[in-house]
Amino acid sequence: MTGISHDASASVPPAEIEDMALYHPRSWWTKYVFSQDAKVIAVQYAVTALSIGMVALVLSWLIRLQLGFPGLIEFIDVDRYYQIITMHGMIMVVYLLTALFLGGFGNYLIPLMVGARDMVFPYANMLSFWLYFVAVMLLVISFFVPGGPTGAGWTLYPPQAILSNTPGQQWGIMLMLVSLIIFIIGFTLGGLNYTVTVLQARARGMTLMRLPLTIWGIFVATVMALLAFPALFVAAVMMLFDKYLGTSFFMPTLVEMGEQLRYGGGSPILFQHLFWFFGHPEVYIVALPAFGIVSDLISTHARRNIFGYRMMVWAIVGIGVLSFVVWAHHMYVSGMNPYFGFFFATTTLIIAVPTAIKVYNWVLTLWRGDIHLNVPMLFALGFIVTFVNGGLSGLFLGNVVVDVPLSDTMFVVAHFHMVMGVAPILVIFGAIYHWYPKVTGRMLGDLLGKFHFWVTFVGAYLIFFPMHYLGLMGLPRRYFDTADIMIMPASAHTLNAFISIMAFIVGFAQITFVFNLVWSLRHGKPAGPNPWRATTLEWQTPQTPPAHGNWGDELPLVYRWAYDYSVPGAKQDFIPQNEPGTLTRGGTA
Amino acid sequence: MVIAVVLVLIVVGSVLFHFLSPWWFSPLASNWNYIDDTTVLTFWICGAVFSALLLFVAYCLFRFRHTEGRKAAYEPENKRLEGWLTAITAGGVIAMLAPGLLVWAQFVQVPPAATDVEVIGQQWLWSFRLPGADGQLGAADNRLVSPDNTLGVSPTDPAGQDDVLIEGGELLIPVGRPVRFLLRSIDVLHNFYVPEFRAKMDMIPGSVTYFWVTPTQPGTYEILCAELCGVGHSYMRGVVTVVTEEDYQAWLSGQATFASLSL
């Protein structure tokens, strides 16, 4: 078993560069507001993302009010309905999930888990957050401008996105596109930072194959985002040109309400290719950090090494590469050349193989473990259920011919909510329960955490599992009014009402989480440095919460991989990565 | 321990829901039973994987839950097990993909005998154009759309003069004969979707897209727009009725042609 990641007998290489000089804050402003400490920036990202996420949660209630109880609330007219679904989708995908996983968890965990003092470009890191903040503010402002936010659907498909029968033509669409552009600039500053930090600032002894899977997930997702977001960036710029400068990148000759517009010669499909060239990797940009984090949660709380670490790493890398050649499975019925379907269905189903390997290895990590059903573990288990469910329904939609009847129906809505809504959000919750003690020094309340888990997990499953069958029946998505659809029996409307009620319950349960976050800040049980008895470096800091610079005088030295749990012959059931010794020749040796 | 029980309940509940709930595909009215068959096959494979995985997790949670003195096994890798699981997964994927691609090959190849029916979408109305006695549709272009020529049919193309135009009305098609739907849009994206036919396709201004279908069941079916097309999206409905050949011919001869409308 020599030469593998978990062989701790190799010595730590000598230092090659000097320790990093840090910017030390001089005032309250530079310590807490314009901070250059990645940990503060992480909290800023997380608080901003969760706050705008609460807005998206309220929007989802309004959507469910309309679908479950149409006409009950007069406020939700058809214009507002489309604005609500658009903003809900965009906020959740980009401004909550992407920002929280990469900006939030990435900033907090990368320097700590690789054994660095901070991100390598702290100033750019600060700019990254403030650009993100401006992007979020533009979104918020768009709710209050004349005409309101755009109602083009989160996919913003032209031509309708910039024409007059879609709400938000006055200001909304412009603010949306500009906000995305600023978000991408901000993300690029952060993303380059995360990438360079992982590649260049690891502690001595922290080889790539000793990195915790959390870092592998965030790292590969960041590289993907750096390659994918430019496609969205140019699409947003081109659409702004079409709207305001009279170009026709995406606009063919068309007649709107009897009037010939000045456009001609452009291609709406071009936008879809650009959008999904970003949009599909985006799914994995959200999923890969979740995969990484959940691997570490399961391993730590099952007191067992992650099963098949090297396969897990290669699966992450493989999924990252493959996800760039599957984008057009979102476009099987878009009117692109139908022969593309053969290629994209094949690549899409191939991606199921590395994804399945990851699931097997999570499950095999539980097998013969010593499973502690702590709150983070419960959320990790909830993730496995919802991710497997959503991943499998992806095999329906990826297989081109099965997609034809299901595309653009509620089946798709159910699928992507299960796989990239509920599943990663359960990981976010699990991760917050797991790392909150390190961030604040106090534990989150256990009983409230369990209540939060059960309502969220069971409720979300009851929302989205039955929803697939509405789509199977043929109910299209993005319908304001589902009354009088011939294929819909009365029972389907009852089901819609049931789904809505579950959505209200799950939404209200999130209040317990917010309360727990605030209350535990002062009243939580003191956590100590390593409450979960975990191996990774962030739990080995001299102070909890870690001070600026993370490590005191001496940077940690890394002697082993991140998964030395329950090593035969060891005194404790975990050996931290920075503990020297040869007693870890793994497994059967 | 509750979680292990809940996982078992999720498996049992999901399977029961699948078989007992009243919500399922709308009754099929076209030749695309192949699509339904592939979907059902996918349900069986995915359902088996879902159940097996969750039951195994439930077993692990029950069997390996923390008790005083339990120690986890230390086994970083097991190449044989990982190899087998990869191979089985690949087999399952091929079992779904292969029939899927075979059916897709049928879907993209329009039978030569298919008759053309043009469907034109605009906010928020379905219109149709059928070839006249010459059996072909004349040219059309959005640049020609005007108040007198709302579908943009070329006035100079002789093939278009006898085309039958139905603006905002009901479409009839004959049972048992393959139809190729040619799809156009005047303004934004739309999607021509009849759930009972199983097929759908986006309509793009500036392009002509298509799919084909052989209606097998006479009856009246609703056309739904399945691509967000502005605020009227959910109200963009139409009706297609599948009738016998005689009824179809009788109906067709009563319709107005492009030439008669342009007079």
From TrEMBL, chain A:
Q: Which GO terms describe its cellular component?
A: membrane
Matches recorded under InterPro entries = Cyt_c_oxase-like_su1_dom, Cyt_c_oxase-like_su1_sf, Cyt_C_Oxase_1, Cyt_c_Oxase_su1_BS
User: Does the keyword section mention Transferase?
Assistant: no
Protein family per UniProt: Belongs to the heme-copper respiratory oxidase family.
Q: Which GO terms describe its biological process?
A: aerobic respiration; electron transport coupled proton transport; respiratory electron transport chain
Gene Ontology MF terms in the entry: cytochrome-c oxidase activity; heme binding
Q: Which residues form the Cytochrome oxidase subunit I profile domain?
A: 23-559
Name the UniProt record assigns to this protein: Cytochrome C oxidase
The protein's matches in PANTHER family, at most eight in alphabetical order, are given as: CYTOCHROME C OXIDASE SUBUNIT 1
Ordered alphabetically, the record's keywords are: Electron transport, Heme, Iron, Membrane, Metal-binding, Respiratory chain, Transmembrane, Transmembrane helix, Transport
Species of origin reads: Devosia limi DSM 17137
Asked if the keyword Cell membrane belongs to this entry, the reply reads no
- Places the protein is found: Membrane
> Chief location of this protein?
membrane
Q: How does it sit in the membrane?
A: Multi-pass membrane protein
Source organism superkingdom: Bacteria
Pfam families hit by this protein = COX1
List where the protein spans the membrane.
Answer: 40-63, 83-110, 122-145, 171-192, 213-241, 283-299, 311-333, 339-363, 375-398, 410-433, 453-475, 495-519
Automatic annotation (TrEMBL), chain B:
The GO terms this record gives for MF are: copper ion binding; cytochrome-c oxidase activity
From the UniProt record, list the reaction(s) this protein catalyses. 4 Fe(II)-[cytochrome c] + O2 + 8 H(+)(in) = 4 Fe(III)-[cytochrome c] + 2 H2O + 4 H(+)(out)
The superkingdom of the source organism is Bacteria
Question: What residue intervals traverse the membrane?
Answer: 41-62, 83-105
Any single Pfam family the record assigns to this protein: COX2
Residues in domain Cytochrome oxidase subunit II copper A binding?
Answer: 112-254
Please give the biological process terms from Gene Ontology that the record holds.
Answer: ATP synthesis coupled electron transport
Q: What is its EC number?
A: 7.1.1.9
Q: Which InterPro entries match?
A: CcO_II, CcO_II-like_C, Copper_CuA, Cupredoxin, Cyt_c_oxidase_su2_TM_sf
Instruction: Kindly list the places in or outside the cell where this protein is found, as annotated in its UniProt entry.
Output: Membrane
Cross-referenced Gene3D superfamilies? 1.10.287.90, Cupredoxins - blue copper proteins
Keyword Transmembrane helix assigned to the entry: answer is yes
Topology versus the membrane: Multi-pass membrane protein
Return the GO cellular component terms, semicolon-separated. Answer: membrane
Keywords for this entry?
Copper, Electron transport, Membrane, Metal-binding, Translocase, Transmembrane, Transmembrane helix, Transport
**What does the similarity note say?**
Belongs to the cytochrome c oxidase subunit 2 family.
What is this protein's name?
Answer: cytochrome-c oxidase
Which source organism? Answer: Devosia limi DSM 17137
Lineage, broadest ranks: Bacteria, Pseudomonadati, Pseudomonadota, Alphaproteobacteria, Hyphomicrobiales
